[in-house]
Design brief:
By secondary structure, this protein is an all-alpha fold. The chain has helices at 2-10, 18-38, 45-59, 64-76, 86-89, 97-103, 106-114, 121-128, 150-164, 176-185, 193-199.
């Protein structure tokens, strides 16, 4: 399926019309939704991600194209899980070290899937690096600081926040205040402090965060 879509959109001599972009994005979005449907703990995750990352990106002055890339990456950041055995990413408990190494491949797999098409290469870089850490101890490439693409740094903060607020078989959800404290505690190590500070300016009172699974 992915090879067919790539060939369809990248065929020499066939211009990449906006309509074709939208069709391809819809196909990948459907795959992302299918993954969320299997994992009830992530229901609505991508939708919340889009709202939050768009706010941060706008506050930080990202260009129109960068924001478009960021929104696509927010929708598709976990699409690489389609290449991970469901017994691993749907495991109802903590992962073993070996399983964690397997799940870490999802960001590279996802970037490879969406990066095959020219108009999604920017989003692919954000997807690939959204688990990097500010201090260089993340994955897959262990890059650090400003070497991490801005969009990926934004995704890292927002993705982690949403995970904190969500219930898992092995943990209870954090409260809003606990999540804020955790983001601040990890600023300058796991997260870019500037992005955390910007994200915390969001009007969370306007959100029904009780919708978290």
């Amino acid at each position: 399926m992915f090879k067919f879509l790539r060939d369809l959109f990248c065929k020499k001599g066939w211009p990449l019309y906006k309509q074709n972009e939208e069709i391809y994005l819809e196909v990948l979005s459907a795959l992302a939704e299918a993954i969320e449907a299997k994992d009830h703990s992530t229901r609505g995750h991508s939708e919340r991600m889009v709202k939050f990352v768009t706010f941060v990106g706008q506050q930080l002055g990202m260009s129109k194209q960068e924001l478009k890339d960021l929104e696509m990456a927010a929708i598709l950041h976990d699409v690489g899980k389609i290449g991970i055995d469901k017994s691993v990413f749907l495991k109802p408990g903590k992962l073993t070290p070996e399983e964690y190494e397997i799940i870490k491949n999802h960001s590279t797999i996802g970037a490879n899937i969406i990066g095959r098409v020219t108009f999604m290469k920017g989003a692919a870089q954000y997807v690939k690096h959204h688990h990097e850490r500010w201090d260089g101890n993340g994955y897959p490439d262990k890059i650090k600081g400003d070497d991490i693409p801005l969009g990926a740094r934004i995704l890292a903060v927002v993705d982690s926040f949403d995970a904190m607020m969500s219930e898992r078989p092995y943990k209870k959800p954090m409260t809003l205040e606990e999540s804020f404290a955790e983001l601040k505690r990890n600023s300058g190590t796991q997260f870019d402090q500037k992005i955390v500070e910007t994200f915390l300016k969001y009007d969370f009172q306007s959100e029904n965060l009780s919708d978290h699974p």
